[in-house]
Amino acid sequence: MHYADRAHAGQVLGAQLEHLRDRDPVVLGLPRGGVPVAAEVAALLGAELDVVLVGKVGAPGATELAVGAVGEGRHGADWVEVRAEPVLALLELSWSDVADTVAEVKAELADRSRRLRGGTEPRSLRGRTAVVVDDGVATGSTVEAAVRVVRDLGAEQVVLAVPVAPAAVLDRLTEIADDVVCPLAPADLSSVGRWYADFTQVDDAEVRGLLARP
């Protein structure tokens, strides 16, 4: 199975999350690509839509390869750091070796928060069911950071919903989220974009537009 685009992926996910409708969930997309997926899930569940801000920490000289991730904490100035220890070990790197990249990611997230939220704080999720949505998972570091951020914001239950992820990574993610929904779990992911007919890049203007929907 392949997805036509992110909206199609969100519709497939939403159909598998119908059981959450009565729990008054909050659907949280990872900007930017996860937000169009999350918007469809939120529409199908009649739920609020928001974002959870996390950023990938790329390997030196191979920025597409995640060695970890950073997430926005409760007060914007607090940070959640997730290290992909197996990847770091494979590359013979320590976390301190990517300290400059981590600082850059934090600065970028702070700037993105201002652009997308207009300076407002992340909403409290205390006592709520939070559905964390991305357009796909490769190493799992970014969504792991997102789950930890959402728990820090007070969510009572965290459901991770992604259209595609490697089977081996899903095994780990089931240990950090209360529930994981993933319709497509290939043994060989190759890349997330491979599983979409249209994987056009999403910009901040599109994210703002989706968040502004009534």
TrEMBL record:
CDD domains linked: PRTases_typeI
Gene source species: Actinokineospora diospyrosa
Domain Phosphoribosyltransferase: 20-169
Keywords, in A-Z order: Transferase
SUPFAM superfamilies: PRTase-like
Molecular function (Gene Ontology), one example: transferase activity
Superkingdom of the organism of origin: Bacteria
Protein name (Swiss-Prot/TrEMBL): Phosphoribosyl transferase
